[in-house]
Amino acid sequence: MFNQKSKKIGKEVTKKRLNDLFILITLCFVVILINLWYLQIIKGKEFEQRAINNCIRSLVEEAPRGEVYDEQGRLLVTNRPAVNFSIIPAEVSDYKSLVDDLSTIVPIDSSNIVEKIRSKRLNPFQALTIKRDLEKDKIVLIEEQKYKFKGTLLTVQPERKYLYQNLAAHMLGYVNEISEEELKIPTFNHLTGGDVIGKVGLERYYDSYLRGEKGNKEVEVDALGREVTTIRVLKPIAGNDIYLTLNSELQQFIEKQMFDKNGAVIVSEPFTGRILAMDSHPDYNPNIFTEQLTVTQWQEIAQNKDNVLNNRNIQSVYPPGSVFKLITAIAALEEGVVNKNSKVYCPGYYQLGNLLFKCWKEHGHGNQAIVEAIANSCNVFFYTIGQKLGIDKLNYYASLMGFGEKIGIDLPGEQEGLLPSEDWKRKTINEQWYPGDTVNLSIGQGFLLVTPLQIHNMLCLIANDGLYLRLHNVEKIISQSGEIIREFKPELIKKIDISQETFRIIKEGMKKVVESGTGRLANIEEVKIAGKTGTAQNPQGENHAWFIGFAPYDKPEICVTILVENGGDGSAAAAPVAAKIIQKYFQLKNNKIVKNEQF
Amino acid sequence: MSVKIDSANSLSGKSFLNYLLRLMKHIDFTLIFLVIGLCILGLLVIYSTTHQEIINVGVALITKKHLLSIFTGLLFCILVTIIDYHAIAKIAVPLYFLSLIILVYVIFFGKDIAGSRRWIQVAGFEFQPAEFAKITLIILLADFLSREMDKFSNLIYFTLPFLFTGILMFLIYKQPDLGTSMVFLAITLFMIFIAGISWKYIIIVFFLLVSFFPIFWSFLKGYQRSRLLLFLNPEMDPLGAGYNIIQSKVAIGSGGLFGQGLFSGIQSQLKFLPAQHTDFVFAVIGEELGFMGALLLISLFILILWKGIRIAQEASDSLGTFIATGVTSFMFIHILINIGMSMGLMPATGLPLPFVSYGGTFMITNFIGIGLLLNVHLRSIFA
């Protein structure tokens, strides 16, 4: 128990201490009030001014994307300055009237803008571009009515420019603002809405090299949006330049040949894998995407019945028709089903049970050895040997030559096609594999679907006697300081396990195709071409015409694959085009040699 | 003695009614009016900053919710006033342990908001247990100090209050909520000071705190360190962590003598100012109501604190003194840190302003505190 005295003393101390506490409290508030007086009364005017001025803006400075050059160093894709209309979300109080006012000057998509503003990764003080690439007269109109557009600004930013319009459009691709879905992709997780990325083609595949790093400028602006002070500047870093293997002159020539056709062309060097030209028709002008497309404009392009945006070389699949006979021939030679001299009699049809498969030549080719059969594209010969081989063997050699899987070219969106097998048919169609299916497959019809790129890959393998080189579009990537970031040297993936003798016989057959067979229209004086025609039956309409070929026959330098959609007969529609392309190639090459000798 | 009122609980309905009438007659109405004055000021400012459409919340919803927490707070206040504080002190230890359990629960199962687990949900209501823990700590310390204050020369007794607080601080620091855990330390220091520890001990505690600072620093998270550093130099990062302090100072400064008027503060209305209705509500008052508005607010606070001190001094026993001291110092430390932070005089720790800031749990806690003050005051009269 405490004694009363100490308790009383304790109470007294407590009272005194409480007084002390109140003195402390009072002192603290005096300090606060003095400060408040200083802030509000003495410095008040200054702070008031600062509050009015106080609009810190963060302006993104987009990095110029890397430029794209062709094989000869010709500039294909660059950037140009464009004036963009941006808003500072924190400073706009009434979006609706802003959008209404703006739409009286330029066509805009208001739902799009609202969506962008709602986008989650958004700093309210960071300028958000809502209309790109304004025309001169529109800029003047906006400047005149600036009072209506509070919290907005016009900025100059680099925009993509494709100097040759439609040239190699599918290969080059195009750029546009990142979409909500793309923002969710891990590769892009440091980007924000409104950023521009490569959407398709090389622009997409090499986006991380081309894009560069955007800069940022933080400035304090006054209520009218004029810059007062710059707080921090982070310079944008331009993207890396890309040098292609593309020969733009050859590409231009090819596009001229194809302008009235739908189809695909690939030209490459077999011994390096460098792609010299790649054309897909119909084509489009990638410049239209740098102006902001409205929804209707976009739908017009995306829903075009000819699939303008599709790169037919890698994204469309077709039956290969007779060009596939080369696979059947390789399989038969390798498996010993036939040798160079074994003959098959072609009466114009092939009988399987009570089914009759016709040769394209009504009265038949008579006795045919393999070289003649390739030259004449005799169906009966290949029906016969295909039937002897069976589906498993055909499937094995086709997949050995790259069918049924992606080739792995440096472009996004490549398709696998379809290489049928017994197993596949049972699983997907729930039907057994019939001998008639094998007969169809042996001439490249039936279930088989291929991309032009796969066919081209097969062509290169034959031209290279089985050396499998990676097909690629890019020669090197070079930084702005001139440093080589990546170089793409010829890359040997593997050697296909097929005998040299087989390739020799196949090549001889292909030579005969052009000399005296179905590909006679590809015969030119300058150089000896080996090739193969194909006429693929197309249930939707007119047949697709194929031609594949390489030249010179004895020492291949160039491989050409041509597909003309609904072109009809391969020998008539595709072979002459190939011949012209090969002619052009050698002509350009000779010019180059002459030029070099002049120096 | 106060026990008499307790024994009045052999209550017939009539005697309870008499009891209430007696309470009504002697209750400190001045204190209540002061608090209501603050609440009205808070309501006005909150309505001013949130009346514009706020995405996902809707017009005036925040103001309505704020009004609701004021009424809930008043209910708690009445309840706490009626029950004799001696009865409350009897369950101080169970209350304290209940707080500990809930705080441990929060660390593991609390609702995660912006990286902190501070909230739990009970019957559809969300609340921050750390706020109620302040009250339980005050009652526990008051109970302990009133019984054991004479034994303070014994080091074990002296360290016990720090132990009680330390455990709570650790649990709240884990949430993590550095600002609130500092409030616990401040409450303890003030109460021990009032308990009359000798200056010798005060100096020892001071040096201990200073020498512990490096250890304390190593426990801080990155953003907490940067806040403390930014307090020293806000211009270091004007768009990042220093942004709040700069904007708040600019807002207050631009208010001038009479302010720019409700609904017309540039900083507040254009949303340059962050957390306007919670942590930086004082900046809105400074901007929209000016020096005069801030002076009115601070005067109300000083009067309430003065009332608290008077009640502590006039309490019938030391338990009452300590309870009133605890409540007063709890409010004082919140006011000081909040206003100091808004003016750039203190690090930004995110402590709300009593009776003004938006936030239900905090509002109720403050009303419970007022209830305790009224309680102590009433019993001093009856005694």
Mean pLDDT of chain B: 81
The helix count of chain A comes to 22
Tell the overall outline of chain A.
elongated
Instruction: Report the CATH topology name of the largest domain in chain A.
Output: Beta-lactamase
* C-alpha termini separation of chain B: 5 Å
Beta-sheet strand percentage of chain B?
A: under 5%
Low-confidence stretches of chain B: 1-10
Number of strands of chain B: 3
**Global geometry of chain B:** globular
Name the beta content range of chain A: 15-25%
Give the name of the CATH superfamily of the largest domain in chain A: DD-peptidase/beta-lactamase superfamily
Integer tally of domains of chain B: 1
Helix content of chain A: 25-40%
Following the backbone from N to C, one meets helices and strands of chain B in this order, namely HHHHHHEEEHHHHHHHHHH
Compact overview of the structure:
Chain A is of the alpha+beta class and 599 residues long. In chain A, the strands form seven sheets. In chain A, strands 2, 3, 4, 5, 10, 18 and 19 form a seven-stranded mixed sheet that branches. A five-stranded antiparallel sheet of chain A has the order 12-11-23-22-21, with helices on both faces. In chain A, strands 1-8-9 form a three-stranded antiparallel sheet.
Keywords:
heterodimer, A: 599 residues, alpha+beta, Penicillin-binding protein 2a (Domain 2), 2 domains, 7-stranded mixed beta sheet, elongated, B: 383 residues, mainly alpha, 3 strands, 3% strand, globular, disordered N terminus
Describe this structure in words.
The complex is a heterodimer of chains A (599) and B (383). Chain A has 599 residues and is an alpha+beta fold. Chain A has two domains: 60-242, Penicillin-binding protein 2a (Domain 2); 249-284 and 312-597, Beta-lactamase (3-Layer(aba) Sandwich), CATH 3.40.710. Chain A has 22 helices and 23 strands. In chain A, a hairpin with a 6-residue loop joins strand 11 and strand 12 (275-281). The radius of gyration of chain A is 35 Å and the shape is elongated. Mean pLDDT of chain A is 87; it is low at 1-5. Chain B is mainly α and 383 residues long. Chain B has a three-stranded antiparallel beta sheet with strand order 1-2-3. Chain B has helices spanning 3-7, 13-26, 29-50, 61-82, 85-90, 92-109, 129-148, 155-173, 178-194, 199-219, 222-232, 242-254, 266-269, 281-314, 318-342, 360-382; strands at 111-113, 116-122, 125-127. In chain B, 72% of the residues lie in helices and 3% in strands. Classes of the chains: A alpha+beta (599), B mainly alpha (383). The interface between A and B is large, with 47 and 49 residues.
